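My current task is to audit a protein record that another person submitted. My question to you is simply how this chain folds and whether the C-alpha cells agree. This is what I was given:
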Amino acid sequence: MKNLAVLTSILMLISFSSCNKNKIEGLERELMLKKDEVTQLEQQIEYLQKTNGSLLDRMADLSIVSKAGAESIQHSLESLSQQYDFIQDLTSKIHSKDSLNLALVMNLKRSLLDINDEDVQIEVRGGLVHVSISDKLLFQSGSSKISPAAKEVLGKIASVLNDHNELDVIVEGHTDNVPISNSCMADNWDLSVKRATSIVRVLENDHYVDPQRLSAAGRSEYIPKSDNETSVGRSLNRRTEIVITPKMDQFFKLLETPALKK
C-alpha cells in the first residue's frame, strides 16, 4: 500500500507538472502575442506623432502665409487709399486751375475790351492761358522796337498779371517763314528772340512785373498758326504770345505721386 501511495503521488506530480507546463506554454504564447500588439501599437504611436508633427508644421506655415497675405492685402488697401486721395486732390487742383484760367481769361478780355479782336486773341490752350498779340500792333516790320500803342496794351495785360503773383509768364516771339537778314537781325531766330526780350523789358521796367516770373523765348517760324503760302497766313504767324503758366516747381509737385507704404 505504501508503495502504491508513493507511486500515486509521483504520477500526480508528473501530471501536475505536465499541466503547468502546458499552461506556461500557453501564457508564453499569449505574452508573445501581447508583445506583438505592443510593438504594433508603438509603431502606430510613432507614425501618429510624426503625422501630428508634420500637420503642426504645415499649420505654422499656413499661419505665416496667412499673416503675410493679410499684411500684403493691408498694404495694398493703404496704397489704393493713397492713390484715391491723390486722384481726388489732383482732380480738385485741376478744377481750381480751370477756374483760375477762366477768371484770367475774363479779366484779360475785360481789360482789353477796346482792342481789336484781330490784333489780340485770348484763349486757353493746353491747359494754359495764351494771349496772342499781332506783329502789326507791337512792332514795325523787321524791328524789335515796341510801338507806343503796344505799351498801352502791355500795361493792361501787366495789371492782370500783377493780380496773380502765383503765376509765371513766358513771352514767345513768332515769325513767318520769310528770311530776314540786316544789320540788326541775323535771321528769324534772332528776330523772334529780340522781340520777346523787348516785351519782357517793358513788363518789368514799365509795369513792375516781377522779373523772376518772366521768361523770354524765340520760336522763329516753326510753330505757325496758319499757312505761310498766303499773306494773310503769314500775318497770323507774325505774333507774340504771352503764356501764363503755374509756377513750374508747383506744377511738377502737383504731378508727383505720393510715396507708397511698403
